[in-house]
Amino acid sequence: MLESGRKLKDSEETTEAASSKGHMFSRHHLSKFRSMAWEAYKKKPISYWILLVLSGGAMLVAFPASSLLSRVYYADGGKSKWIISWVAAAGWPLPALLLVPMYLFWKITPTPLTWKLFVSYVFLGFLSAADNLMYAWAYAYLPASTASLLASSSLVFSVLFGYLIVKNKLNSSMINAVVIITAAMAIIALDSKSDRYSNISDSQYTMGFIWDILGSALHGLIFALSELIFIKLVGRISFHVVLEQQVMVSLFAFLFTTIGVIINNDFQGMKSEARSFNHGETAYYMVLIWSAVTFQLGVLGATAVLYLASTVLAGVLNAIRVPLTSIAAVVLLSDPMSGFKILALIITFWGFGSYIFGNYSLSKASTDEVSPKPSEEP
Q1: Domain of 203?
Q2: What percent of the chain is modeled with pLDDT above 90?
């Protein structure tokens, strides 16, 4: 009995010691994280952190708002696919306004517009116009939460086209992300009947699903081609160079979609749409105006986060944006949210996490390769 009691006491002491060590380990890592965060904070001026917070906030607010407004347009009586795609590019003067002070006051020289670069911008503008039109078809027939989840597959195509066109490196985590997000899209496809609106037919839902995936594929191709242009034609990547590309591509996308709107006589149809809009003419035009503003603000925010911080942080915020859009659509627009869609949402978030980890690993490996090794000489 005494021996048994002694063993029990020793076991309790061992458990307490292990628990104490665990707490000390956790406190040590928490303290280390705090010190690292504080050191990182002190390295940058307060203006940098304010700009980073505003940029991240723009991504997390503007992109979901743009998606919801597109769905509101169709839910309240809008019918034109060309109008929504035109609105997505109509905000191109916003980034142009940011470039003006850079040229005038910061003495930044505009990137020379060579013939090859001009043709590249025209081609990307055409692809962007087509991409916006595909997404417009998707939002016409799909709930905003479903359309947003499907659009996250653009990450899959960005990885694939980046590997094929730009020769970007891949690792097992990034390949895992491709497989996981593809599986999430398959789950949504299998559960398509649970979130289809009553006024949308099976064929229309299928069409919206297909256009969303095609738009995501084209978005991934545009991303890869943009990176290729920076490497082959521009030779550098900086904040103002990316803004220049955003302005030029959006401008040409705006011109292409304007031609489509004119041919389709949709400018004339805007007046009748506004009159029959559920909440009145003012609400109709406000939806279109804020759709244009929020889309460009989202792109600007993503661009700023990318160059103020890293692609990893931009990926993290983009991952957070997907569930935010879905939740906002359920709360504000009463989107149907089945168990399968929730599962797809969780799997998509997991896929983004795998991609972010893989991207971080590649970035860290690249940094370690270029960092100078310590000299072995005494």
Answers
A1: 48-362
A2: 26
Q: Per residue in 248-274, is it b (16+ CB within 10 Å) or e — as a string?
A: bbbbbbbebbbebbeeeebeebbeebb
With respect to residue 171, please indicate whether it lies within any of the assigned structural domains. yes
| pTM > 0.85 | no
- Cα–Cα distance between 217 and 356 in angstroms, integer? 20
Answer whether 127's CB lies under 8 Å from 222's CB.
yes
**Tens digit of each residue's pLDDT (9 = 90 or more) over 167-191:** 878 778 878 888 888 888 888 777 7
How many domains are contained in the chain?
1
For the segment 45-57, what is each residue's pLDDT rounded down to a tens digit?
Answer: 787 778 888 888 8
**Residue 227: strand, helix, or coil:** helix
DSSP letters along 319-330, please?
HHHHHHHHHHHH
Query: Which residues touch 219 (CB under 8 Å, ≥6 apart)?
Result: 131, 151, 154, 157, 158
Q: Is residue 210 part of a domain?
A: yes
Q: Which tokens sit at 329?
A: 């659509």
Of the candidate ranges 167-171, 257-261, 331-335, the one whose mean pLDDT is the lowest = 167-171
Residue 11 in domain: no
Q: Is there a contact between 188 and 344 (Cβ–Cβ < 8 Å)?
A: yes
145 located within any domain: yes
| C-alpha–C-alpha distance, residues 342 and 222, integer Å | 29
